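Protein modeling request. Please complete all fields; requests missing the sequence field cannot be processed.
Requester role: graduate student
Desired output: 3D structure, token encoding
Chains: 1
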Amino acid sequence: MIRNLDLTALRSLVAVADSGGVTRAAGFLNLTQSAVSMQLKRLEESLDVALLERSGRGVELTSSGEQLLSYARRMLALNDEAIDRLTAHDFGGEIMLGVPHDIVYPHVPEILRRFNAAFPRVRVNLVSSYSRALLEEFVSGKFAMILTTERGRGEGAEVLSEKPLCWIGAQGGVCWRQRPLRFGSGRECMFRATGIRALERCAISWEMAVESDSDRTIEATVRADLAVSLMLEGTEPPFLERIQHNGAMPDLPSYSINLYVADKPFGRAEEALADLVREAYRADGFMASSQRSSLSTSAA
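Delivered output (300 residues):
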């Protein structure tokens, strides 16, 4: 007997996993909490496995739930892409999307690829800049939506993920051991002042090795092992690496990746792009949180 998975229930499972609870998932899906709970219950009954564990801390996925979650993301992505591809031929125009330099990778190229497959006649004008500049231009009405990296939630923002700030250096580099420490950062970089305060708090002498508005210039200097820089965990390019300093460098805070969407009527194409952004960064944040939790458990 052929059995089919309910895509609506799978969407609820993904929402619960990404938001960390049935109540928040219900709000995200515009459903009642009981409706989401019923969908998940029917999904468990159809597979005859437990997908969720409920505890005082909230809801967590079982091992079966985590396995199904991987399939659910792929199935929903394919479903949404097929529907948009077959029904979006009449959509056209341009969407202005602003993204900070430091979080273009790894997700934005895949977001753009998937959006183009669904809305081939809609052009996404991607502008890469610093968070402060993007916020100013967003307020002026230049962008339909922007991403930022900020300490916490900005006014009117939707927090998609939270990532720790990390010291970044050349692969196998030793520059970070030298004093004064050679530091590289963009003039308008949101992380610049944080890094400097952390170094001064720990009485680590430093000097500015490279100061530029060009991320490529800074990356080239760091890659040559002539400076260290700062990036959010998981956003470093493949030719750089997180410095494993074992406490020899200052600890750094976490930053939120925030989404701002213009307060105006949106069409289907803009809504689809915003949903792709949410899906990519929320899934990334969930997986990073799970990995850190697993590492903490293993260390314990």
